[in-house]
Write a structure and sequence with these properties.
Layout: H1 17-25, E1 31-35, E2 47-52, E3 55-62, E4 68-70
Antiparallel strand pairs: 1-2, 2-3, 3-4
């Protein structure tokens, strides 16, 4: 029996929240978090920008409650 694998390329900038949440829940090494430096409000100190495979995605994560929010 032969097994065929198909690689699917997904643009990370179009990933859905559910996909990012699954990676977050699985503690995927594909995710990295960077400080958000563009906000004028002090509340932004509580958020980090989410990157997947080194590319920024339109989501931020709260430090305090780990909620994932769409941004940008």
């Amino acid at each position: 029996m032969a097994v065929t694998l198909t690689l699917v390329s997904v643009r990370v900038d179009t990933m859905e929240k559910q996909t990012i949440q699954k990676l977050l829940d699985a503690k995927s090494p594909r995710l990295r978090f960077e400080p958000y430096e563009g906000g004028k409000s002090k509340v932004w100190a509580s958020f980090v920008v989410v990157t997947v495979d080194g590319s920024q995605v339109p989501f931020v994560k709260c430090y305090n409650c780990t909620t994932l929010l769409r941004h940008m």
